[in-house]
Amino acid sequence: MGALCGGTGHSRDTLDRLSDRCLHFFPCLSDPARRSTFCLRIALVMLHLIYVGVVFVFDKDLIHKTKQEPWYTAVYLILFAATLVQYFITSGSSPGYVLDAMRAVNEADASRNRASMTSKQPASSKNGDVVITIDKNQIGRNLLGSGTMAWTKLVMDMYPSGTSLRSVTCSYCDVVQPPRAKHCHDCDKCVLQFDHHCVWLGTCIGQGNHCPFWWYICEETALSLWTGTLYIQFLKSDISKPWWLYVIMILLLVTLFFCLIFLLLLLLFHSYLILTNQTTYELVRRRRIQYLRNIPERVYPFSKGACRNLYEFCCAQSSKYRMEPLPTGQELEEKLRPYTCSDVLSCRCCC
User: Fold this and answer.
1) pTM tops 0.85, yes or no
2) Quick check: is 198 catalytic?
3) Could you report the per-residue pLDDT of 180-235, keeping only the tens digit for each?
4) Which sequence spans correspond to the domains of the chain?
5) Alpha-carbon dihedral of residues 157, 158, 160, 166, nearest 10 degrees?
6) Could you tell me which residues come within 8 angstroms of residue 260 by beta carbon, excluding any fewer than 6 positions away?
7) Active-site residue, from 198, 211, 218, 259
8) Residue 285, phi then psi, degrees to nearest 5
């Protein structure tokens, strides 16, 4: 009995050493949340491999068609690889955290102050050499004072006059939130233009990665639609197949059908959000968001027109941190004005 217990303890020590070694090479597995995300990513990749692999293993017509028209299979495999690459790009990209934006603004303000102080220092010339005297302690005091206020001033200018600083300060991060930002409890950070937290991606969707997220949904929808077409062609072919293969293919096709419906709805929903310059959080929780509470439902306060919204979403990504101030009362009145025939002809809805 003692030997048995000793053997169990020895095996347990061995498992603990193997676990510690695994965590040493993969530190992300030590965090339960990151471990769960890692497992979901592996499961998603395996699902893609299974759905694509089943077709190439059992569909002899596809194999024969590949020999005759290799471009068809090549395009499909390129789409398959591009979808997985886009998935990992989106999951690894930053949604745009408020803390990072605040740090960038403060650093830029500190650099400007340092440059202005350097240019204002007295200089003396002797034998052609220029000597600049700089009081480092004074610069440090000025930078310390102005750096902490640069972000606060920038954000408060985006709100109407009289807005309380306490009402726009995050109670979890203790940072001043610009409009459209929200604290994500899963990431434990404030996100610019927070849309939602995606479990499958393991990250928030916000200003920094909403565009890659839309492209990933688009590629995933196209891949699912093409894969479903291959499954239907396989079931309709005249090649004799065992009954169990029919069962497997039908089960996979039904599951793929439900996934495709979800992806299509998600793609249409986010396309609507892009054209109206909204986020999922703003649309779902509009009544609870303070700066949207008194705005009519049919008014999109941050919209600049469908074409301009689409351009800024897809092309105007040069600025890493883009923050939009709240619209003024005059701008809201303009958005409330109903469209006329002349407005349609002048493309008011697009500009």
Assistant:
1) no
2) yes
3) 999 999 889 999 999 999 988 989 999 999 999 999 999 999 999 999 999 998 88
4) 31-96+200-322, 97-110+140-191
5) -80
6) 221, 224, 225, 228
7) 198
8) -110, 35
